[in-house]
Amino acid sequence: MNSKYLPLAATVAVFLSIFLIGGALYNNFLTTRVFGNILADNSFIIIAAIGATFVILSGGIDLSVGSMIGFVGISMAVLDSLGWNPLATAALLLLFGVLFGAFQGWVIDALDIQPFIVTLAGLFLLRGACFMVSLDSVPIRHDWVDFYTDIKIHLPGKGVLRSSALVMLLSLVIGIYVAHFTRFGTNVYAVGGDRESARLMGVNIRRTTVKIYAFAGFYSALAGVVYAFYTKSGYPLAGSTLELQAIAAVVLGGTLLTGGVGMVAGTLFGGMILGLISTLIIFNGSLNSAWILISSGVLLFAFVVMHRFLVSSFDVKSNG
Predict the structure, then answer these.
(1) Using an 8 Å Cβ cutoff, are 259 and 57 in contact?
(2) Which helix (H) or strand (E) holds 38?
(3) Cα gap 59→182, rounded to integer Å
(4) For position 316, what pLDDT does the model report?
(5) 59, 106, 182, 314: which could form a disulfide with 259 (CB 3.0–4.6 Å)?
(6) Per-residue confidence at 318, pLDDT binned at 50, 70, 90?
(7) Any idea what DSSP says for residue 2?
(8) Span 5-20, average pLDDT
(9) Alpha carbon separation from 70 to 5, 95, 227, 247 (Å, rounded)
């Protein structure tokens, strides 16, 4: 097997193992209803993680994801209360996400500042903006939102794919295409693999960096739109720590934090693994929510070590 597929294969294997363990422990766990709920409940995290995958593939990081989700949600709710159509609001905020992400990317490259610092500043800026918009939770009441939440595709076994899951799957397909079948995607991998070599090969580093963070900003804003529609509300604290969950989903999906290695498809399974852990604990009923974080942390640590071992072992055998 090609070494680039090893992390993805490990992710899929872990996902299937956890799913089968859940089925062995609890009745009605191995059903399309549970599967559909996992997709719907984690759709906005996976969407944000798809954008974060491009950033991490390039060797960067984006800590502004959760604050972007919160800002988009509260802005949509307030504008809805002022009579705005949710579609118009969503389009405006998606454009804002692109521009904000592009600005972060420009600052990172033009001023040669670490992505951690720039996006941390973005996190504080957007979270502060949330509280400038509103200090309270604001409901979204619009017929179109009700129509959106009623969209679903029925699966065998009484399961359903809800609208949020459908948007996530479409976003995933687009992400896979962009990453693996476009010149931009090739440049992302090149920058993450070796920045100087990419420059010598003719890759415009600044343009590529701006596009990467603009793309991630779009996906973060889209995650905020989906979250707002899913909860039918906006809240200034919404999305807190979701940037960490998005990064965890990317890493569990097989993308290395050093950049240049990973596949967008793996991010789907990484996000679903986090959802599976939560679902297992809910099915158990005797464990509190702290175990979700503990289990996720242990699994993330184990997964990073396993990835490193698998890739290193395969490279040694190939060179030998």
Answers:
(1) yes
(2) helix 32-41
(3) 19
(4) 46
(5) 59
(6) very low
(7) -
(8) 83
(9) 34, 16, 9, 17
- pLDDT at 25 (0 to 100): 87
Beta bridge partners of 59: none
Q: Answer yes or no: pTM beyond 0.85.
A: yes
314: DSSP letter: H
pLDDT, residue 312, reads 62
Cα 213 from Cα 118, distance rounded (Å): 11
Please write the tens of the pLDDT for every residue from 160-187: 999 999 999 999 999 999 999 999 999 9
Question: Which residue matches tokens 């969407």?
Answer: 47
CA–CA distance, 48 with 15 (Å, rounded to integer):
20
> What's the CA gap between 89 and 95, in Å, rounded?
10
Question: Any bridge partners for residue 153, and if so which?
Answer: 161
Could you tell me if 271 and 249 are in contact, meaning their C-beta atoms sit under 8 angstroms apart?
Answer: yes
Which tokens belong to 76? 């949509």
The phi, psi pair for 42, rounded to 5°, reads -110, 10
CATH of domain 3-319: 1.10.3470
Of 208, 251, 242, 245, the C-alpha closest to 72 is 242
Amino acid letter, residue 224: G
Q: How far apart are CA 292 and CA 117, in angstroms?
A: 28
Residue 237: name the closest of 70, 93, 108, 78 by CA. Answer: 70
Q: What is the CA radius of gyration of the chain?
A: 20
Q: How far apart are CA 49 and CA 52, in angstroms?
A: 5
**β-strand pairing of 152-154 with 138-139:** unpaired
DSSP 133-171: H-SS-EE---HHHHHHHH-EEE-TTS-EEEHHHHHHHHH
Residue 106: CB partners within 8 Å, gap ≥ 6?
Answer: 206, 209, 210
Determine the residue type at 238.
Answer: A
